[in-house]
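Class prep. Write one:
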Amino acid sequence: MQLNLLDNPQYDSLKSLEWDTLIHELKKNCHFESSHEFLEQAVLAKPWIEIQLDYQSLAFFVQLSWTEDFHELRNYLSQVQSKKSLKHTMERLTKSAVLELTEINQVVKVFEAFEKMLPILKTWSKLADFYTSKDEHQNIQRHVVRLIRQIISPDGEINYKNHPELGRLYEKQLELEAKIRHTINTLSQDPLFAERLQFSGHDIINDRYVVAVRTDSYKAELGPIISRSETGMTLYVEPYAIRAQVSERMNILSKIAEILNLLCLQYSKLLESHIRIFLSYFSALIDIDLNLAKAEFSNHHHLVEPKLSTDGSLQVYGLFHPLIKNPVKNDVLIEANYSGLVISGPNTGGKTATLKALTLCHLFMHFGLYVPATEATLPLMDGIFYLGNDGQDLNQGLSSFSSEVKSYIQLFTEFKENNLIVIDEIFNSTSSEEASALAIALFEEIRKHTRAKIIISTHHQMLKTFMHSDQKFLSGHVGFDVIHHKPNYKLHIGMPGSSMALSIFKNLSEKSAIETNIVERATGILEKKLVLYESLLQDVARKQNELDRLIHENHEMNLELKNQVKSQEGVLKLKMQDKLSEYEEKVQVTLKQAEQLLNKVQLGEINKRKQLENKSFELQAELRTFQSSDPKPNMQKLVRPKEFKEGEKYFLPMLDRNIELKTHNLKKNEAVVLNGKISIRCKLDDLFISQANKSFKPVLGNQVKVHIERSSHISHNYDCRGMRLDEFENLMEKAISSLILGEVPFIHVVHGHGDGILKNWLRKYLKGFPNLNYEIPEHSHDGATRINLVTN
């Protein structure tokens, strides 16, 4: 029996890895029986270039799986016959076979299904492997498919009327059948038949219309007997009144069959002349069917595309077995200078699952599947060996140990250039000391003959101790929760682990009603050095478990603190919004009062200066209440200029920044200043000496200081195509701040067409800024937005 799992025609050799269960899941998602046959074949060893091509193809369908096109492909496949007889039908065409009309219809459906898929598959990397030239495809469509579809509809019905001779014969057939049925319906009124008919109506036997007559009442003048019932109590008679019409109908049916046979011959030759294309399209449908199944499998199990390790190292992060529900994920890192890994630890701790998952990773690569991990970089192995089952063979008289030895000897005859050798519980059926010595010697011999990564699990004390000291091998162990006395399935690299046999036995025995001292006696029987070593390993496991728990608790605390910070930020934001809403309401009331005052003045209701001053004083007092609640800079540290020069820099407290004086009018106490490129009107009294060369900043009152640091690189053009929404939101908030502060004249955002997620968010966001508007640039086809600042 061949041990290498690659290029191995013996499908049973993969059963120890639950391969049949994995393949069964893939087959459930396949449409064609031919796809099932492909999945059941051997896993072929492939060079990396072929694996990359498989992965490019799979990546296309994985991406497609989140769209409606994925379901469209499934629908098109379902319109083609799934039975493997379709493949045999097409193979018969290569031998000049004449197909029946139903078979011809199924072959044409292959072409039609592929044609419907072409718009979806236009960027598929493997399309060129199957698709002929456009001219040849259209030629087949016009001169083969269209011609056949004139006579045979997609549902298999024959369109007699589309053929001149068939149409005439078919009409004559229908006319005769109507006359025959009418004649039969009148037989119940004929005295000769009235009392002899078993039931009204008729039957058709061998294309002849017959009526049922009781055997004991039959007379020759009724008509010839065509058939009898199984009991012999009923005779099926063809009445003489319709015999001539039935014979004429049969003659017409014969002519129709002759024409259909000629059409079958004609169509079969047409298909045969283009059979290469039809076979290619059928192969494409099989490949698409397999990729759809693999994409669904990869999505369901959260598999990832691996990278190629060029130096021979093996790096798998988040490794898991795809058939384990809610698996514990582990990292397995074996650098190029290490020959392998020895995993120890308690039973049911996850050693076997880890070994199987690693083996499946390498098999999946050659099989064109992603691997069960969150990230993986794997060396390309052309020899993959997994030895894990009890090989005891009673028929050949081999014990478990003998069978295992035979397998290891056979290994040396099957080695390839690069090998992965995975052994679960090596030499577990013999004494520990001899098993350890044999295993160590076996590994040394393997390393002499070939390059290999050797990954094993073991309970043997001497073996795990020796291999831990060997600089060519890594030690690892699966964890055990000594507090709750159960495995935690975590793999720890760097130290061997205890088998925990005594601890597990003691825990289970204490739960039973039987009092024993088996553990104490076993401890006394064992050598003190061994007991001490196992105790040390258990202590390491206990400390490791405690460390993991503390790390987990620390992680949870960090998350909780972050949530608290976000909660406080949320509360502060709500309070600020409430305060702003309150001020906004007060401002609106004051503005309304001011408008009313202006209207009264214009209408002459207030015409005395004293009344106007009183109303004005009331409004000013109201405004001062806002000013008192909005702390202002400490004006004591601001110095007023003795004179004003246009073009010079001055400090404007309301903006808390230096601005340029554009024009000024001393008499009116007015100034126009430039904030970036935006002109702002203010009073000269609001301007102070520039703070650029001062060693101090204006001291604000009792308020929160906010420091805004701006990037030295400010742009007004942003190409955001392909950005995530959260990244886009952050960028736009900064860009719009720059626009409002006058640091850029406008913002031009290219967000693309797509499904409009970025575009919709941006335009909705802009509605909250009354001083901003946007326009859609010409020729952008709604793929860009220009944002402008309203300065009037």
Notes: Confidence is low (pLDDT under 50) at residues 392-397, 627-633, 693-713. The radius of gyration is 44 Å.
